[in-house]
Design brief:
Blueprint (H helix, E strand, L loop, with lengths): L2 H8 L17 E6 L17 H7 L2 E6 L3 H10 L4 E4 L1 H9 L19 H4 L5 E2 L2 E2 L2 E7 L1 E5 L11 H4 L14 E4 L5 H11 L13 H15 L2 E5 L2 H10 L4 E4 L1 H9 L4 E4 L5 E10 L6 H10 L3 H11 L2 E2 L15 H4 L8 E3 L6 E2 L3 E2 L3 H12 L3
Parallel strand pairs: 1-2, 1-3, 8-9, 8-10, 12-14
Antiparallel strand pairs: 3-12, 4-5, 6-12, 6-13, 7-10, 7-11, 15-16
Helix pairs in contact: 3-4, 7-8, 8-14, 9-10
């Protein structure tokens, strides 16, 4: 029987109980997630926040890894999943499309432990309703090869502008960019600082003239980029074996490469960074809502939050997880950028009616134009 039926009249008292005690789960929960977000110890036995959950609840966790936000939206549109760890450039699309349902926060006892800056974030809160549970946040950092850059680069210009790098060789063919339309915001952020006369106030809110300037920059960058990355593991291999020396990246790749003793480091350039604040959202037609709610509560546990932050290089949405976690360490949250919150322009879906200047170029244009740029047009 669906939980909604129980709540509507048969056993409403069950809906007032904590998530783990509400009713017996359906035995399964299907999740769409970013790579590295849901680990069961298969890569490293120290990182496992699935096995214990399965034993405690009886809910078998299955995971479909998605490489981009657009892929996540497509998978949720197809259906067959209960949860998705959506970034801000996907969450509002899922809400507007009716693919996710509002969350009953009273069924998530740990809700109050979430960072207050994220509890009512606009990428998952609409008209006072929460459509998800914050999961982790982080920055799209500039990752670089320390043998090429003895000193950390201080600007995104190394991936946007043709130039010789400190080793005397051109950057052409040795840099990467993200394979997703939301990357247009990274170019806008760079121009917001390099060309203040454009008047860009928000990298997700661009008028026609600003947008044209950003596309021109991206077309220039197209001549430099050796590969547009979306698979974290492919990018890891490219830095190890294919001569890539600078790119936007996630801390996950940097941590993985560093653990393999590769010469990489990351930096937040002077222009700032884009970033992601991911939200676990419940499908509007979830087949396993009880197990899903149990996972939502489990996802806020301080051990899971700290372990995941250590593994992915992200920042917990539960601040208490920053202390006392053996894998993360006492300074792990600072290492992962916890103090950079104000410098991060978090991903969100561009819309035509925007706050900074009234009318802006909507996301569907970002999608078609970025595809054209990737194709060399």
């Amino acid at each position: 029987m669906r939980l909604s039926a129980l709540c509507l009249g048969l056993l409403p008292v069950l809906c007032q109980l904590p998530a783990h005690a509400a009713v017996k789960g359906e035995g399964q929960v299907d999740i769409v997630a970013w790579a590295g977000y849901i680990e069961r110890g298969e890569t490293d036995k120290n990182y496992d926040w699935v096995t214990g959950f399965e034993k405690e609840t009886g809910c078998k966790v299955t995971v479909k890894t998605a490489a981009t936000s657009d892929e996540m939206v497509a998978l949720m549109n197809e259906g067959g999943f209960d949860l998705v760890t959506a970034s801000g450039d996907a969450s509002l699309r899922l809400i507007a499309g009716g693919k996710v349902q509002a969350i009953d926060t009273s069924r998530i006892p740990s809700w109050h432990t979430i960072d207050p800056r994220l509890q009512d974030a606009p990428w998952h809160t609409v008209k006072g309703k929460h459509y998800g549970v914050p999961y982790q946040w982080g920055s799209n950092v500039l990752m670089y090869n320390t043998k090429v850059f003895a000193k950390a680069p201080d600007s995104w210009s190394v991936v946007f502008e043709p130039q010789n790098l400190p080793d005397g060789k051109p950057n052409k063919g040795r840099v990467q960019a993200f394979d997703g339309p939301i990357y247009i915001a990274d170019a806008a952020l760079y121009l917001m600082n390099k060309r203040p006369e454009l008047g860009i106030k928000d990298p997700y809110e661009l008028n026609e003239d600003q947008y044209k300037a950003v596309l021109d920059l991206l077309r220039q960058q197209r001549q430099l980029v050796g590969r547009y990355w979306h698979d974290a593991y492919v990018q890891i291999d490219d830095f190890k074996n294919e001569g890539v020396v600078a790119s936007s990246s996630w801390p996950f790749q940097a941590n993985t490469l560093a653990a393999d003793k590769q010469p990489v480091a990351t930096v937040v350039p002077k222009e700032g960074v884009t970033g992601w604040a991911d939200t676990t959202m419940l499908h509007s037609e979830a087949k396993h809502p009880v197990c899903a709610y149990q996972w939502l509560e489990h996802s806020l546990g301080t051990k899971l939050q700290g372990d995941l932050a250590a593994w992915f290089g992200s920042v917990p949405v539960v601040p208490a997880a920053c202390k006392g976690n053996a894998l993360l360490g006492e300074s792990g949250c600072q290492t992962n950028g916890a103090d950079n919150f104000a410098r991060v322009h978090f991903w969100r879906t561009p819309v035509s009616q925007c706050k900074s200047q009234g009318t802006c170029v909507p996301y569907y244009r970002w999608v078609s134009d970025y595809i054209a740029i990737l194709g060399g047009r």
